[in-house]
Amino acid sequence: MAKTLVNLEKISKSYDGHLVLDELDLTIHENEFVTLLGPSGCGKTTTLRILGGFERPDKGRVVFDGMDITNLPANKRNLNTVFQKYALFPHMSVAENIAFGLKIKNKPKSYIDDKIKYALKLVNLDGYEDRRPNSLSGGQQQRIAIARAIVNEPRLLLLDEPLGALDLKLRQDMQYELIRLKNELGITFIYVTHDQEEALTMSDTIVVMNQGYIQQIGTPESIYNEPENAFVADFIGDSNILGGTMIHDRLVEILGARFDCVDEGFGENKPVDVVIRPEDVKLVVPGEGLIEGVVSHLIFKGVHYEMEVQAGGFEWLVQSTHMRPVGTKVSINVEPSNIQIMNKPASEDEEAVPLEV
């Protein structure tokens, strides 16, 4: 088990009477890439700012490497933050921007020069020392902001939606760059985003948040394949989310049809939420499936076709490499292992799992 680096203990924060975080608990281990994922206003950036020392919680403690740093100023914490707006100094060269924090710490010139070269090599910008930030592309500016952070040798690097201003291709390239940097540097990364693809691509651990609560913590695979509630299922990837009735173990009724599943322990004749990913919906010829329907919409997505199928009074989203034209009558099947059963939560912000990473 990796060593614990950060403990957020019962963190609560309100702004103007509006509760943003409600007794949030979170444990983060060394050398993890942890992503805080959720919609705008869910509390992820506030969590990051409290950890970075830019905000203080109303209640709770921030423990870093065993030390309570709740009231420690940001500049005294062994961490750095990279923001979406890179906050580079336009009147300074790239080298001067990178060296800024080191000069404040009164590091010797030879040490600073070595660190600048090292950092520029890490972010693949050798030879850019004398350039000004406004002569660089967005991706290059972002790399300089990261270089400025890593020369300070932080144990923890906080990234607040740093790729949000980049175009799609560059954003994808930088995702792989961040993974490489994390692996090479051995620094713990905490990354904030509302982009599910970023979270699934880069993370060791994803923390899904909504309305100030943690909804689920897990690996990208477990979050995607085993969502704990309807909010997580809907937020992570495309999903068909239907109301159902658990008849008994391994049998669920959906839209009047009974499907075999693999879930147990939900009781008998109990209302449940059912999640079926669109790539797991199998379209077969009429009469050979469990629910009859008709294709109502079709889009070509490149790697697959995306279809909407009206069946059982529900609009199913289906992704398949086999195209069915609009108007085609079909029947729906789903493998038992691809049906995910969830308890209906009392509310959307219900905490779903023990909050330990």
Unreliable stretches = 348-357
Strand order of the largest sheet: 6-7-8-3-9-10
**CATH architecture identity of the largest domain:** 3-Layer(aba) Sandwich
The CATH H-level superfamily of the largest domain is P-loop containing nucleotide triphosphate hydrolases
Helical stretch count? 8
Approximately how much helix is present in the residues?
A: 10-25%
Percent strand equals 35-45%
Biggest sheet record: 6 strands, mixed
What's the structural domain tally? 2
CATH overall fold name of the largest domain: Rossmann fold
What top-tier CATH class of the largest domain fits best?
Alpha Beta
Q: What is the count of β-strands?
A: 20
Mean of residue pLDDT? Answer: 91
Q: Any idea what the shape is?
A: elongated
Q: Please provide the ordered H/E string of secondary-structure elements.
A: EEEHEEEHHHEHEHEEHHEEEEEEEEEE
The end-to-end span amounts to: 11 Å
| Category from helices, strands and their pairing | alpha+beta
Q: Taking Cα atoms only, what radius of gyration do you get, to the nearest Å?
A: 24 Å
